[in-house]
Amino acid sequence: MPSLSLNTSPAVAAENAPLVLSDKVQEALVITKRGTEELLIEADFVRKLQRSELSGKPLRIKLGLDPTAPDLHLGHTVVLNKMRQLQDLGHNVIFLIGDFTSMIGDPSGRNITRPPLTREQIEENAKSYFAQASLVLDADRTEIRYNSEWSDKLGARGMIQLSAKYTVARILEREDFTKRYKAGTPISMHELLYPLMQGYDSVALESDLELGGTDQKFNLLVGRELQKDYGQEQQCILTMPLLEGLDGVEKMSKSKGNYIGITEPGNTMFAKIMSISDVMMWRYFELLSFKSLTEIARYKAQVADGQNPRDIKVTLAQEIVARFHNQQIAEDALVDFVNRAKGGIPDDIPEVSLTGAPLGIGQLLKQANLCASSSEALRMVEQGGVRIDGTVISDKGLKVDAGTLVVQVGKRKFARVTLTA
């Protein structure tokens, strides 16, 4: 067996012998590190893997999510994919719903606090979160916990005792707090408690490894420190990159409109994936695909040899659509995409009934939910992005007469509109 020397933490600095890794541990390490930003502390994690292999006791791997919104997009699945990979390696994954911390509100790098949620909002969002997360995780092998289980029991005395384990100076090392403090932007006391409460979750769960986005690194490190204070073995942390959205610049976000929702229709998901750039495609392969690194390298070689990147992108789009729907829907989505690319009309488009003929084109597009406003609709007409029965509309003053017609806005929005007086 090959030996592998890794940088050690202070806790294992005295262990000078090189690590000798079994094939199983080496494979687990490669899978764990794929597509990640940072693994801390790697040598500690390798020893945890070795111990797990020898004892047969799986590691306890934690992912905490505050249910601040009811819908997940592909950006959220980056960390969920990693959880599933670790789950498939035989470890126990804990899907921690931050019902208590949601009521505190985490700024998460923003310059204003995230508004706390009501208990009703949390419960509703949590149901939706786990149902959607189960499209990635194996629900039967996932432990679901709520941090109110232990946080509510702390009470005022316990909260003060917990707060005594960390200094204000260390809390203010968190980047967003530092910026706000220097800028004179108010920081509420309850915000300072958030990293402590998230860190205490790791103590309560005796976590071996905690996952999170790069924007959560500080909070994950607090968990390590608190475990040490409570006499526990410290967890390792694994940070995942933030996936860029369809624009290839900003991180994927519903508020920025550059997202792909995991419950969107298959045709929509497919078309959105096909719209990403050829360069960004490889980033999506790395963070979202379950293809092996060898397969992805082969795809890159094929493109370098002259194959159209569009063909490889189709493979990615079909994989993602099949994961969240099924293979048949993925096949149908490809047919639909090709049909649209040829200027054809999809088979399955919304049926809309409107009254008020003759109706102005701006109002028609708005009422048919093809544009958010009549002003947006008129801009689309001006840009040549509106078709009725295949004919480009250029007259912003057009009054549409009664009848049934197929209306198209842009490349992906269609409706069969029946307009009456």
UniProtKB/TrEMBL annotation:
EC number of this enzyme: 6.1.1.1
Residues spanning the signal sequence: none
UniProt domain RNA-binding S4: residue ranges: 359-420
Keywords: Aminoacyl-tRNA synthetase, ATP-binding, Cytoplasm, Ligase, Nucleotide-binding, Protein biosynthesis, RNA-binding
Residue window of motif 'HIGH' region: 67-76
'KMSKS' region, short sequence motif: residues: 251-255
Binding site for ATP: 254
Localization, UniProt: Cytoplasm
SMART domains listed in its UniProt record: S4
GO CC terms in record: cytosol
NCBIfam families xrefs: tyrS
Family according to the record: Belongs to the class-I aminoacyl-tRNA synthetase family. TyrS type 2 subfamily.
Record-given protein name: Tyrosine--tRNA ligase
